[in-house]
Design brief:
12 strands, about 20% strand, TIM Barrel, monooxygenase, alpha/beta, two-stranded antiparallel sheet, Luciferase-like_sf
Amino acid sequence: MLGFAVPQFGEAAYAELARFASTAEELGADSLWVGDRLLAAVQPTVGYAGKDTIPGQFRTGIDPFIALAVAATATTRARLGASVFVAPWYPPVQLARQLTSLDVVSGGRLMPGFGIGWSPEEYQAAGAPFRRRGAQLDELLDALEQLWTTSPVAHQGERWSIPSSWVNLKPVQQPRPPIYLGAFRSAGLKRVGARADGWMAVVQVPGGVNLDMLAWQRRKIDDAARAAGRDPSAIHSCVRINVAEDTALEPVAEAVKMLADNGYSDAFVDLIYVATTTDSHLDWVERLLDR
């Protein structure tokens, strides 16, 4: 299964997202994905992907919930994913309402992925504490579980509290949408094994499809799942393929095939650095799906 990130950031954010979504689905895309960037700090404390800067594309971005709503109404079949929502930015009641509404509007196609982010400036702007991000993610997932599966709902945690309340809008997917977590370090991978339905892995093209590293990460997940009394095979893997600037089509197609041949048959491609218009995005989609 092969999907694509929607043109959400940079110059392409001004283009026709609905046309991209509907056309990509017609061409055979299995899934459509959004990311979550709040702003791009002028002088970042922490840069992006190990660098000391933040890509210029992140200075312009469509809200991920609105982007998913547009994609949901423009399509009928493609799964709709997030890689990933930075969970601690969002109060759980509002987040659950948005995600439940998306699952209802799309007829049960939502695949929400969650993570903890990396930008102190984004946390500051969101009014969220940067420390104990993992603990905040755990609490948010606990609250979402309640909001999605029970009514009345009540939650009392370290950061958030929900008074006993009726919340009758529930997802189409039962008992709830699958929870995906983005992780590549030990603590996050253990969290995937202990409580997630799916793992969002990440590779870079060219040069970043490290099968040994993916296998090590997956073993961490499987070990944590067994320790929690869970079946590791029930935890799905989905791989994000980040395509670097000036990359040709062939290395991307080879990466998709390599992943599929090694058990990672569900992947999606992010074209933010190689496509700047709706038409160039769709040209990449058509050529990759043809391959």
